[in-house]
Amino acid sequence: MKKILQYIRNHGAWAFAFMIAMASPILGPLAALSPLYPLAFAAGTAVVLLTRNLRISLPMAFLVLACAASIILANPLPIFQPWVRLCYSLLVFIVLSPLLSSPTLEEFRIRLYEWVMRLSVFIGVASFFCYFAGINYMTTFYKASPGTAGLFGGLTVQSMLLGPMAGVGFIHLLYRTLKEMMTYGTLSLPRLFMMLACLCSVLLSASRGAFLATAAASGYLFFMFLKDKPHQLLKTGVCLLLVSGAAYPLMGHFASGMISKQEANEKSGGTFSSREILWNDRKREFLDSPVYGVGFASQRIVSYAVSLRTGVIEPGTSYGAIFAMTGLLGGLPFMYILLTNILKRPFPRRYGAPVSPAQATLVFFSLHMVTEGYAFAAGASLGAVFWCSLGAAAAYRHQIHTHPLEIP
């Protein structure tokens, strides 16, 4: 226990505590601690505002102003409580995003990102073992129905959380594996096993969006690390194809839920038939009000009547939601912020790594947000992980480390 506490102190005790608050809405065993989630962001905002020498990100500030302007100009329905949700989102932006920054805050965001990555790996690996132990936490201990908890959520409260969290864990482990191979020429077998466990958890969750985002982010990492070695890149691609073909019978067992879901969707009319109604709604909203949108955290076209009774929003896509809710005023700065943090080289060339680990995570989210609408959902834990990754990506570019890639 003493060694564990020392490890936590050495790698950011406050960041660890904040990670626990972020994990409370994700992990079933921590569900009782979920009130800590908003309290942590409220307290974190107070600390940030008291920090000296703050820098303001103009693109992020413009995004916040665009969100406020969309509410004023569009006058959305009160049931959606847009001002309350904007204030809640502002807490998340202040703590996690590059909206306000300083050397101290950037170090905290990197530490927090590292802890969130450890959490993602833990979720992926532990849920893999839970599958063989017959433990689906929410259905086993809370008797939740599959309609509420999803097909298999492992230790998480919902299978649609397990998929992206395990996918992020896989991408982080792949980043460390490629970095180790390119720097030292070594390969960690325990890490390879953890990668396999995380990938199996993605498949078991039956989240097609998480699986596709994991595959795309993996391809991005291989390309970025090997783009200057085309022959090695080609050999790696061939090996991956061969390994995938050989492992297909085994992986088919773990992917049975995903395959069944895909077959059901194709019978319903298309690969993403469950999302197409929502995507069309967001498209129509954007076309109705392309400049300032229909209002932050609001909807004008509601396909599900329950939203008008509860105010709960199901946008179906983050990009569609951002452009529909805030129009071009909010959508363009958001895309600028996302793309610049993905594309800019974070380290001097002498460090060797072409991207930071947070950039790899952002590539994952940039694909996953096509099918899930959490970017502006302050209460959504995946939204917090996304903004945490974006804040860390910006911090990596600004921080000057002797060994910036040494992530324990």
From TrEMBL:
It is found in: Membrane. Pfam families: Wzy_C. Keywords: Membrane, Transmembrane, Transmembrane helix. The chain crosses the membrane at residues 12-30, 58-77, 83-100, 112-135, 155-175, 187-204, 233-251, 319-339, 376-396. Residues 194-334 form the O-antigen ligase-related domain. The keyword Transmembrane applies. Coiled coil: none annotated. It is a multi-pass membrane protein. This is O-antigen ligase-related domain-containing protein. It comes from Akkermansia biwaensis.
